[in-house]
């Protein structure tokens, strides 16, 4: 029986990478004669001509399709859009910049054929990242794994294959603020790993700067743990005990030894210290309240402006789509997310 594989590739200003990606991926097709592939490029509000390149590639290659989001919703939303529109037997997630080698997809399929429902690419090294980035990433994973029930590995990314049953479970998770690596782990299923060497970016530079990485780390921690809130409850009690102990010591010194109670400097230090502690606590509380605020509005995770595929394929498959899936007829028509 012929099996289908959907390869989801989020794109943000990747115009210079797409042709290289297709050229690298094309040799995989004849290696798997029992499979039908579709590569779904999801244009996440690129400022360059990324979607024009996707349209041209879709017109030239029957296995290339494109989803054009109305604006930049972020990589997590782009991955979700691809997942929602891919109803194949297995789904592969990878980047367009060729840091995820397309050849590794064959190894993913081999493990999947052995009965594994989740196959994850594990980086052999992070030499392509700066030393500071590696240090901060290591700190994030240590903190996240200590305070969350969902365990993450710093050597894993979005590069993976999931079986359709796993994809169906992921589609049930509809929160707006998404941390896909955590969601992959949350649904369970024991993964099997395939090691690979991270390639060099084929074009441009990563849009994931230090500031965005920091915010992404906050997203990951607050999405899967309430420990930061609990910590501040304990910290508040500790600060209260320290303050009461210090007050008692001053009063006893004044009564027993006639020591003059500290004045302006002590008061100023106490006000500044406690104010800083309070502001940090309010900031952490605000992070969670902000996420509640975004979720209760129930806005869609993404909006689709246009979908494209090979015109011949669309014409041949012009049949009504079933409610539980999307046929090739759906490609080429505008749709909402």
Automatic annotation (TrEMBL):
The keyword Glycosyltransferase applies. PANTHER family: PROPHAGE BACTOPRENOL GLUCOSYL TRANSFERASE HOMOLOG, UNDECAPRENYL-PHOSPHATE 4-DEOXY-4-FORMAMIDO-L-ARABINOSE TRANSFERASE-RELATED. Residues 6-170 form the Glycosyltransferase 2-like domain. It is found in: Membrane. This is Glycosyltransferase family 2 protein. It is a multi-pass membrane protein. Residues 315-337 are annotated as: Disordered. The chain crosses the membrane at residues 231-257, 263-289. Keywords: Glycosyltransferase, Membrane, Transferase, Transmembrane, Transmembrane helix. Residues 315-330 have a biased composition (Low complexity). Its main location: membrane. It holds the Pfam family Glycos_transf_2.
